Amino acid sequence: MTGETLIKAWIALILLSIGSALLSLWQIPQEWKFVAGATILTLAWLKARVILLRYLGLAEAPFWARGFGISLALFCLLLLGLYLVPVIF
Q: Are 73 and 52 in contact (CB under 8 A)?
């Protein structure tokens, strides 16, 4: 892992954080709030992947990266489902 990789990961985290912050501050019509929430959750999932793959070095261990990626995706899908329950019912 090089310093350049960590700098690129840091820049990606900053951009994803700015994106989620701007989206949360944006005045969105009530009927589109669930889309904004799902998008913010997706940006958080991407940030978690950057941290796991780049900062923790799982990019060099594909087996572990796949395992953590699947469990993280399932957890985010569970959170998305719990978030969308009031919208559906």
A: no
Mean predicted lDDT score pLDDT of the chain: 91
Q: Report, as an integer, the average pLDDT of 6-17.
A: 95
- pTM, 2 dp: 0.85
Residue 33 near residue 60 (C-beta atoms within 8 A): no
Burial of 86 (0-12, 13-18, 19+ CB in 10 A): exposed
CB count within 10 Å of CB 79 equals 15
Are 38 and 15 spatial neighbours (Cβ–Cβ below 8 Å)?
A: no
Q: Please write the tens of the pLDDT for every residue from 55-77.
A: 888 999 999 999 999 999 999 99
Please name the residues in contact with 57: beta carbons below 8 A apart, sequence gap of 6 or more. Answer: 1
